Amino acid sequence: MDFLFPHGFKYPPDFHIPTPTGEELFRIGPVGYTNAHLTMAIVIALLAGISFLATRNMRERPAGLQNAVELLAQGLADFVASIGGQNALKYLPLFGTLFLFIVTSNWLSVVPLIGQVKFLHSPTADYHTNFAMAVLAFVAYQTEGFRHLRLAYPKR
After folding, report:
1. CA 113: distance to chain centroid?
2. How many domains are there within the chain?
3. Model-level pTM?
4. Which spans in 26-126 are helix H?
């Protein structure tokens, strides 16, 4: 068996297994902040930075990063309009933001060291983040239903 395990066989092996809810890094009062919060802040800063760089010198004829961001925004708008019609475009800011956050967080999880080092944990790998986004979408959907149909909404 030494040819299979030249340095000896150890069970369980010594490697870091991330928890599904992230690991707490620090506490401020009763609130604990996990490594998913840190990575979430990185994702938000990355998206805000790209938005700032794309819109700081806007031109009528876009070029470079502005062109890529406008292509993405128009693609999302066309997708939403093809599913829900032109009236659905008013929901684009909410669901477009959720889409960009989820896609960026998922892509970040394939970056080396994310999920392998203690300080970095993909936000969408954390149950709490997914639950919060689901509650946000559910509340927005129900609020719009009540806003349009008033008291007839629960009967539908």
Report:
1. 18
2. 1
3. 0.79
4. 35-55, 65-84, 92-108
* 18 within a domain of the structure (yes/no): no
CA-nearest of 140, 55, 43, 53 to 101 is 43
Backbone angles phi, psi at 107, to 5 degrees: -65, -35
| Structural domain for 135, as ranges | 34-155
Q: pLDDT tens for residues 95-130?
A: 999 999 999 999 988 888 777 777 888 899 888 899
Residues 6+ apart with CB under 8 A from 47: 100, 101, 104
In a domain, 90, yes or no: yes
C-beta atoms surrounding 66 within 10 Å: 17
Dihedral angle over CA of 115, 18, 39, 36, nearest 10: 160
Cβ within 8 Å of residue 12, ≥6 positions away:
none
